[in-house]
Structures are given as C-alpha cells and as structure tokens.
C-alpha cells in the first residue's frame, strides 16, 4: 500500500539538521548519505535505527498472524505516515488514532481504515467524519455514554456511524465502569438512527499487574458475550484491546472462537512497539514473558557542554528534546572527541532542565566538553511529538532517510 506522504524540504528550520544553505528535498538530503558525525547535523538530535524499526514491525505482524489476530497499530505514538505505510504493508488491518485531528491526518495520508480509540463528541468533527463515511472511508469510534451515541446519531449521513461500546474499569481513563452500564450504552446505540454497534472495546494498558490485566480482559470477553446473548451485536463482531504492555494477554483472553453464532474479529492496538524504548516498555514488554524480542530504535545524541565539578557533567538535552514523563533518558554510549566509542557505564541522568541534562559521573569515568553521548529514551509517545523530522540511520550511522511526524 502506498500512502500520500507530504513532500518535505530541509532548510534552516529543520530541527537537528545543520543546513544553512538553500533548501533541498528530503529525498535529495537522504541521497547524500550523510554520516551522523559528518557535520551535517547539530546537537541534540533524535535518530531512528532502520534495522530496529523493521524488526519490530515484523515481530508484531508475526505475533498477530500466528494467533489469528488483526492489528491496528496506534498511530498516535509516531504520527508518521512513512511508518504507517510500513505497518500497513506488513499486514495491519488499519491505523488507530486518539483524536479527530489525527483521524483527519490519516485521511489526508490515504489510510483506508481508522479506529478512533476514544470518545468523540465534537459536532464539527463528527459531521466531517460522517461526510467521509458517505464517500466510502471506514472509521469506527468508541462510545461509553448515551451522550456519545446521541452525538454520533446527530451527525450521521447516508451511511451509519459504526461505534464500539467501551468497557473500562474503576479509576481507568474512559469506558463504562461495569457490564450493566455497557448494556445500556449498547441498547442506546442499537436504538439510535444512523448508528451501528460493531462490537466492544477496552484498554488494559494502565493496569498495574498481569493478573489484574487478565481479569479485566476476561471481563471484556464476558461483556461481549452478554451483549451477544441480548441480541445487540451484529453477525461480525469486533473486539479490540491491547496496548504495548499486555498484548500477549489480549491473545490469551480474547483470541479464539468464543462467540458462537458470530464471526469474531479481535484487533490489537499496540503502538509503542514500533520503536520500543530503553525504559518503560523495555521493562513492560510482553516479550519478557514469551519468546521473541523488540529492539529500541530511538537514540538521542547530545553533546557534553560542561564538566564544572567532580562527579557532574551537563549535556545539551532537556525537556524540550527528550521525553521525561515516564523516566529520564538512559545513557548508552559515549563518543569521545577522538572518535572512540565506549559504554556509558555508571552514567545516569539525575535532573532535567529545558535544555540541560544533569549527569552523575562515577569516579574513574572521564567525560570532556565536546564528547557526544547516545541516550536511549523511555516512552516513545512523548518522543516522536518533539521531533518533526527524524533521520533514519543504518547500523553504520549513515543517514538513509528522513521520517516526518505530524500533529
């Protein structure tokens, strides 16, 4: 599948690329095959390793295929049409988004099928979606209230707005809090003109433990069965769940043919898997519980700008450049001024300012102003949004392409 990827140009506005001359196209810049340390870049800079991206996309595609699951990777992680294209070409059923604006972007990119994994009550956005549905586009959205159903119904055009009744859990972000509430929302959807109930949705990613997540997913399954027994579900039923922390449990609890009389389509929505990380998801990936592995694809390179006292160094990277909401960046390697690369053993980030990382430096480790440090990140969803242009590197640190992110 070929998406419509907007043509980009590299110039003085392109963050992390040192290009004071006339603008060049992304393709021209990539064709030059710049080395990461050749002088074409300035620091800090976030890059993505192509081999890791390719591996991760293939790994999740294989996981879903072997378990007869569909996959709609969560696009809000990257909002990068080049990665959407790669995911769709690897067999993804569609792309998941979180906001109407992200759905609009997917429509512009040419994504044929979108799952809006959120409640939407904006009349203007719903009216636009209804118009696009009338033109043949496919989009489903979540509802957890009669108000959400009514908003979808009021916007509907000639084709119904397809919705998924969302089951949440106490303290969770959205979703009906119990099966009784879910039945009431499903009944409202069944009775609303211009609305079609397509199935049930859930999200287990915010749950703390494996056992609690399993119990919740079992409740999603039970709720779907209850709706089916009440005659509220169509012949083909969509059941969707699955962040990047528990997709193995989604397969275990929701996979298989457990809804008699219905064709069941179970859709996993993991997003952070595509780049993985060196923090939050390194610790929480399901591949700690089963064979297989994901690889951290994102690196942020920053320069040591000051070593003002023993045990302390400052790197030119901060909250404006790197995620910090789910753990501070992790030093991986040091590239010294003479080109030597050593492990960043013992280094740790202790504090973040807007453009400074405070590094604890153990005795026996030598850092000098001008050294470059390669950092891994924690939580890619708040990394991609900081970098409108991300150089893609091969394993020899040659830049082979550029990824652009949107919204």
Structure explained in plain terms:
The protein is of the alpha/beta class. A hairpin with a 2-residue loop joins strand 12 and strand 13. The two termini are 22 Å apart. The model has no long low-confidence stretch (mean pLDDT 97). Helix 5 (123-134) packs across helix 6 and helix 7 packs across helix 8. The strands form 3 sheets. Strands 3, 12, 13, 14, 15, 16, 17, 18, 19 and 20 form a 10-stranded mixed sheet that branches. 27% of the residues lie in helices and 25% in strands.
Task: Give a short summary of the structure.
The protein is of the alpha/beta class and 407 residues long.
Secondary structure: elements and pairs:
Elements: E1 9-10, E2 24-25, H1 26-31, E3 45-49, H2 50-66, E4 70-71, H3 81-89, E5 95-97, H4 100-109, E6 113-119, H5 123-134, E7 138-143, H6 146-155, E8 161-166, H7 179-191, E9 195-201, H8 210-229, E10 236-241, H9 247-254, E11 263-268, H10 280-284, E12 298-309, E13 312-315, E14 330-335, E15 341-343, E16 348-352, E17 357-360, E18 372-376, E19 389-393, E20 399-404
Parallel strand pairs: 3-19, 4-11, 5-6, 6-7, 7-8, 8-9, 9-10, 10-11
Antiparallel strand pairs: 1-2, 3-12, 12-13, 12-18, 13-17, 14-15, 14-18, 16-17, 19-20
